[in-house]
Amino acid sequence: IEVKLAPLRWHGEAVLSARLAAVHDGRSIALRVRWKDGTRESQLLGDLLAADAVALQLSVSPRPPLFGMGSESNPTNLWYWKSARLEDVAGSLDLLEGGPHRAVDPRFGEVRLDGPVYHPFEGVPPVAVRGDEMTATGVEGARAAERRRDDVQVFPTSNEDGWDVVFVRTLAAPTDRDLAFRAPEPVQVAVAVWNGSAGDRGAQKSISIWQELRLLP
């Protein structure tokens, strides 16, 4: 389905729609979010926060809190992916100031040691393939929520039009704080998208209203 998005702060490069699809095999479910983005920003070195991202919020409540990231009595699950993370490029940062086979002598300045030739690091990290899952009990609770990386798998791809990001998780709940998918009980799903090149970060993003997902047996 096409999901309409609205930016929390209006700007000309806001993501205004996404395509949402779902499929399951009786054991696991895959949710795909597809949206257009001509820049496909995954650059962390110029601005450590400038990266595209997407999140799914899920609830089994028939009337979940609107945009509130759940509450103590009605928690929601959040699945989150960001196109680049600092830990993914930490090892490459050492190459920005030259290769490791260099030394500085106080008398003669820089001395080049024998060693292989190092090409300059271009500063473009690989696209991250890890995601986070957390249980949110409100906006403040989401900030402090434990982030788990083994429960949800993420498969991102990009093309000239934008991003395809697929989240995969078991239908059964990995922990007692996670929701379980049970046919034909409905699950409410909301989408959030960040456009990194437009300065989206934190609470600055585009969001949808709740969409009902009903699994077929």
Tell me briefly what this model is.
The chain has helices at 86-89, 139-144; strands at 2-4, 6-7, 17-24, 28-36, 53-59, 76-82, 102-105, 109-112, 131-136, 153-158, 162-170, 186-194, 206-207, 211-214. It is mainly beta and 217 residues long.
Would you give an account of this structure?
Strands 2, 5, 6, 9, 12, 13 and 14 form a 7-stranded antiparallel β-sheet that branches. This protein is mainly beta. The protein is globular. Helix content is 5%, strand content 37%. The two termini are 20 Å apart.
Task: Jot down its keywords.
seven-stranded antiparallel sheet; 2 helices; mainly beta; 5% helix; 217 residues
Backbone structural class: mainly beta
User: What is the alpha-carbon Rg in Å?
Assistant: 21 Å
Q: What percentage of the residues does DSSP assign to strands (E)? A: 35-45%
Mind describing the biggest β-sheet?
Answer: 7 strands, antiparallel
For the termini, the CA-CA separation is 20 Å
H-E order: EEEEEEHEEEHEEEEE
Shape: globular
Helix content: under 10%
- How many helix segments? 2
Compute the average pLDDT. Answer: 79
- List the uncertain runs: none
Task: List how many beta strands DSSP finds.
Answer: 14
Lay out the secondary structure.
Layout (H helix, E strand, L loop, with lengths): L1 E3 L1 E2 L9 E8 L3 E9 L16 E7 L16 E7 L3 H4 L12 E4 L3 E4 L18 E6 L2 H6 L8 E6 L3 E9 L15 E9 L11 E2 L3 E4 L3
Antiparallel strand pairs: 1-3, 2-13, 3-4, 4-11, 5-6, 5-12, 6-9, 7-8, 10-11, 12-13, 12-14
